[in-house]
Structure formats: structure tokens, C-alpha cells
Q: What sequence folds into this?
């Protein structure tokens, strides 16, 4: 277990929000706090949460959701903050989970069909495939290139998707890996979603159960598992070999830019 602790920031309407700073790297340096944040969707941010986010001095918000998700629930707009939309899964054959998931999963007919599919383990298999796509899809490579080159140009920044766990989870995991954070710590940050997001969507599980579904079958899809991140890292190794090659050959972020990212986002020795 690392010595890093995540501040449980008192946000009332924005789930799965945290600072990526504070994690210790294998060389003893730490990721600088107050520079990069991750979260779930921001569209329902209360006035209090909007004020809090504005107070962080964020310069850019990167929205990793699909066009359909972003159009259904337009992203938060803050004065002086640039918004950048990056459809990570634009080239995926399957459509991302709908933004109005709570309504979909409270429909008895939909729930019955979902329950049947989830019971055979196909849901987990779908997630494993989706994580491999986060590494190999052209749209994912383009999107993450824009994100990481953007982080070179300015911060503080925030990136998010709908749940802040998959597209956002890989963005955080690959970024922390490049910076030199240990694999154990990266998984620790990743798995925090189960504590910081699932409680916020208790109503979805309640609606699913009320409509005849088994909420235990739903948790693997709406939460995270180490096996999902394993699949992404395995795909990275198979296609690129190393994190440095993934950034250079996959994302077009060369060695000089990688060094610049480390210098910008790591505390001095």
C-alpha cells in the first residue's frame, strides 16, 4: 500500500473526482498536486461544486465522452476555461453506455434482457474488449494524443467521461505510468472508483433491482476490476512493448515531449 491518501473533497453533485497529484514515483519524486484532476460527468454540477471547480484555477476541461453523450448532457462551462471534446471510442463498434443510464436500467424489458446477458459473463468480456480498444482504436490514439499534448501546453486541467472510470481510468493510468508511478499505486488510484463512484449511483442499482434485475450482476459493468486494467496494459505490451513506445509510436508524443511531461508534473528531487 502506498502512503498516498486521496482527499475526499466535498463535492455534492460531481462523482469520482480526485487530484492525480501526490502519488510517489519509483525514483522517489511525487506527482505534483493541483495540476491534473479526473472525474465523472460534470453536467449536473451544483453552484457550490461549480464554485469549487472554478477555484482550482482549471484552464482546460477535456471531455472524453461520445458525441451522443455530450449532446444529451452538455458539459460544464466555466468562465475562462477551455472545453475540449475528445470522442475516445468514436471508432468502436459498440455504442457507449447511454448518458441516461438510470432511466434505461429501470425499464423492466431492458432489465430482463440485460440480466440474461450479464448472467453469462458476457458483460465482463465486453469490458475486457473495451479496455483493449482504449489502447488500439485510432480514435482513442488521436484523443489521448490531444489530451497529453494539451497537458504540455497548460494546467491545471481536468479530464472526465461519464462515469470517470474507463476512458478516464486509462488516461490516468497511462499518464501515471509515464511519470514513473508504481504499478501498485496506479491500480490503487484506479480501484478507488468503486468507493468514489458506485455509492453515487445507488439509485441506478435500486431501480435495476426494482425492475427485476440482480444488482450484483450490474456492479462489474458500473464499477471497475483490476482485470480490466490488466487487459489494457496487456494490449499496450503486445502492440507497443513499453509505455514510452505507446506514447511515441501510438500517440505521437516523442521522447522530448515525454521528458517535458515528467518535468512539468513531477516535484523536484
A:
Amino acid at each position: 500500500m502506498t502512503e498516498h491518501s486521496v482527499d475526499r473533497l466535498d463535492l455534492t453533485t460531481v462523482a469520482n473526482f480526485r487530484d492525480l497529484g501526490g502519488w510517489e514515483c519509483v525514483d522517489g519524486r511525487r506527482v505534483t498536486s493541483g495540476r491534473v484532476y479526473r472525474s465523472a460527468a460534470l453536467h449536473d454540477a451544483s453552484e457550490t461544486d461549480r464554485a469549487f471547480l472554478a477555484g482550482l484555477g482549471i484552464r482546460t476541461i477535456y471531455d472524453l465522452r461520445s458525441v451522443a453523450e455530450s449532446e444529451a448532457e452538455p458539459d460544464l462551462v466555466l468562465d475562462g476555461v477551455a472545453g475540449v471534446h475528445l470522442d475516445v471510442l468514436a471508432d468502436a463498434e459498440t455504442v457507449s453506455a447511454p448518458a441516461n443510464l438510470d432511466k434505461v436500467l429501470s425499464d423492466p424489458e431492458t432489465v430482463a434482457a440485460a440480466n440474461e446477458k450479464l448472467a453469462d459473463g458476457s458483460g465482463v468480456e465486453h469490458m475486457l474488449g473495451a479496455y483493449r480498444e482504449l489502447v488500439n482504436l485510432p480514435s482513442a490514439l488521436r484523443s489521448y494524443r490531444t489530451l497529453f499534448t494539451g497537458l504540455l501546453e497548460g494546467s491545471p486541467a481536468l479530464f472526465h467521461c461519464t462515469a470517470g472510470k474507463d476512458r478516464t481510468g486509462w488516461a490516468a493510468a497511462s499518464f501515471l505510468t509515464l511519470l514513473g508511478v508504481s504499478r501498485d499505486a496506479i491500480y490503487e488510484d484506479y480501484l478507488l472508483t468503486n468507493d468514489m463512484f458506485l455509492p453515487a449511483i445507488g439509485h441506478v442499482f435500486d431501480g435495476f433491482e426494482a425492475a427485476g434485475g440482480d444488482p450484483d450482476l450490474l456492479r462489474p459493468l458500473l464499477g471497475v476490476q483490476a482485470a480490466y486494467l490488466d487487459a489494457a496494459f496487456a494490449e499496450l505490451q503486445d502492440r507497443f512493448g513499453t509505455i514510452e513506445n505507446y506514447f511515441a509510436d501510438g500517440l505521437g508524443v516523442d521522447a522530448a515531449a515525454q521528458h517535458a511531461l515528467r518535468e512539468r508534473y513531477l516535484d523536484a528531487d
